[in-house]
Amino acid sequence: MEKDALKQQVKEQIVKFLNLNTVSPADIKDDEPLFGEGLGLDSIDSIELIVMLSREYGINIQDPKEGRKILTSINTMADYIEQHRTK
Amino acid sequence: MGRIVVTGIGIITAIGEVLSEHRTALMNGKSGIGKAHFLRSKYIEKQPLGEIKMATAALAEKLNVTNASATRTDLIAFYAVQQAIADACLSEAVLSDAATALVGASTVGGMCLTDEMYADANLPDQSASPYLQSYSNSANTLFLQQQLGIGGIVNTFNTACSSSANAIMYGARLIKNGLAKKVIAGGVDSLSKYTINGFNALMILSDKPCRPFDAGRKGLNLGEGAAFLVLEKEEDAAGKNIYAAVTGYGNSNDAFHASATSADGEGPFLCMQRALEVAGLKPGDIDFINAHGTATENNDETESVAMLRLFEKVPAFASTKSYTGHTLGAAGAVEAVYSILGLQNQEIYPSLNFEEPIASTMQVPVRKYKKTHLRHVMSNSFGFGGNCTSLVFSKI
Amino acid sequence: MYIHQHTCISPQQTNGLIQLEEISISADGKLLAKEPVLEGVPPAMLRRMSKAVRMGIGTGLPLLKNNVADGIIIGTANGGMEDCIIFLNQIVDYEEGLLAPAAFVQSTPNAIAGQLSLITKNRGYNATHVHNGLAFENALLDAQMLISGHSHKSYLVGGVDEISSYNYNIDCLAGWYSKIKTNKHLYTDKTPATIAGEGAAMFIVNGSPVNALAQIKAVSLFHSTDPGTVVGRFKDFIAEWAPVADNTIFLSGENGDLRQTPLYESCEEVFGSAIPVARFKHVTGEYPTASSFALWLACYALKEQNLPPHFYKNEHNLSQVDRIIIYNQYQGMQHSFIFVTQ
Question: Is the pTM of this model over 0.90?
Fold first, then answer.
């Protein structure tokens, strides 16, 4: 899959999985932080996204701290998914 | 007005079925956390748990309960309540009196029967299961009310893991305000797929026995239990065995996050401060703290920060969750009982599995059983939704 | 204890502009609450809220914006139940596998009180009472005790419950709700079961009578399945708190369930024929904290000095409303009396 298509897909999945009613996938910038500032996600969202990575891409992350690095931005997520996806 | 005193105790957890067994385990540093035998969940292979060493059917038989809709939660609550009532010599006439109140607490109520609940919830045309009415938050208090015929005010608290500390506080206030003369107050939770999966999803369960306040702590172990106190005015308790006085209680909300405590421990700080105010005590008067001490990364550090803020010199403290696991809605009442046991016997029970202090706070819990002089003991309970409660018990 | 402000979300037009002359009709045995657009709630929080939490925030937040409250006290029997079911379904569907935790965190009934405090940074007293049909009454008692001796302290007190598919299915199966009953013929269609409802009502209370909307003189709650005990307790309550029945409305929780109607009627008879009887379950449906709506309606009646005709059960010549006695019971077991005056 093309990287840009993957990024678009991840954005759509994030909006759906986290129930971000007021956000459209296009609003999420590739390099903007997902947590704290930026999109304003919190620690529960980070675990929700770890679950999403498992269900959608077969990626298993055990340590939430490691997860937080992967989930920094759409760019870091797409990079990690490309390298580690099992489905 | 005279003090509000504790004249009856009933408790059941992984470390004992009667009060004396709990004290023996605590004195000997003997934890009840290990492999669960009665819970049905795939996590029993991975997670050590503080399970009560009795099957649900055995509990029902022992209690002579034939009601098919009684859940494990109902039964362990009833088990503890019966002990408390016998201990305080409350007659049937007293129980049915309009001045006798019952205040219960639980976090998941009837949710212990996850699979049955699932069927009930999703197959609305299925014939009614006996657990139909057991789902509610108040199911176990309603069960106790029916069994005991309580005539006065009955209530159930659910403020997550501080629930039964709040129930005890509410009970003491009912007496103080003249709305009840005798109060049975406490809480219960049984192990369930629901909570194990929930805490596992939050990634705060430890796959090893929990290590409260240790730098290498990996999370909490879940446990189950029930504990109830009988409270009354000192002047109404003449001739009874009095364990301790309930002198302080305070509650606050941390107003920070749905499932984590703020870095400066504002909620815990405020509830401890308010409990001292109600008790008319200074921080230096507290001789021991039974800490919330869940052994999660967040709790133990923020609780330490709050203690450091309030106390010039942090009193001796320990977490008995290293014996029972985190009994959730029962934890406040279970730990109130252990605080009272310590006061009554003038002794401190050690925290288990501690090796190295948290670098940022450097607080070391009590590690060895010791006889000591205790006047006032504080017990902390904090829950999801930012709910923080402290109780203070004092020597008679 | 005095009520100074209130808000109400219900199946009727009770939030903002109040219109109770014409009432919404139930569908499929349910009266669903009309939800307002929530203002002042961070979108990140809003997306995780169930209807119960949204109704609680929608009624509580406007009051907390205008008042400094010393604490937040909520009564809710089933707050969080919908999220319980979302999480429970995950446990079963994914066979205890990797699960998303947000629903678990939101499933705790104290999510309403917790989020109100989180949004308004209220670090005061925070309590959630969940004792089913007496959850709201216990919240009132809690506030009353806090105010006693501290009359300057103000608290937000409220009752909230939603119709979740889960508790609705179970309560239907248990025979409490009927899918064919309507609120149009609620009291004349004499069958067991009633219609389901939901809503939230919140109040700012303190110990000061200055500019108060109403005074709550007494709250009494107990459990019994014996009609004789209920009437006995009611007589005691009246004798102690409301011996004068002039300009008084008896606000009854009658819900059309023929098994429960005699309980309400025997309490009515305590007054002889002398007192106007009003009912409200045809506008709210039945839910465990419906008495919070009754208290809101009592405040409304005191302010308007009357109620629209459809509320009254009997003919009356009431020209002035000074006192309201509320009797509500839940599932034949949990009973409460609340006495409200000018």
Answer: yes
